[in-house]
Amino acid sequence: xxxxxxxxxxxxxxxxxxxxxxxxxxxxxxxxxxxxxxxxxxxxxxxxxxxxxxxxxxxxxxxxxxxxxxxxxxxxxxxxxxxxxxxxxxxxxxxxxxxxxxxxxxxxxxxxxxxxxxxxxx
Length: 122
Fold this sequence. Notes:
5 helices
């Protein structure tokens, strides 16, 4: 297998990532084909190492998709990290509130007496 064919096999599999545990290969191939803009048959031939001579255009397209995919994953990971940091701060604040003594209501708020409102079924 040529080095270009080996690279394309790797790039096609990268374009299909992330895979879900238990996912069938045809689903991953279809996802890679959509992302690359190639036919499923062409992607399948790269996936299984049957395509011997990928064109320079195919290699360039797959490289560009791989670079964009890596950037997207890094952005997602950054957002996920920030979200977890926010959740940790919220949990810490809630824990601090649980440990704080109860705050009495302000003096202007009085409990409602049913006798004063006329409620109570008399």
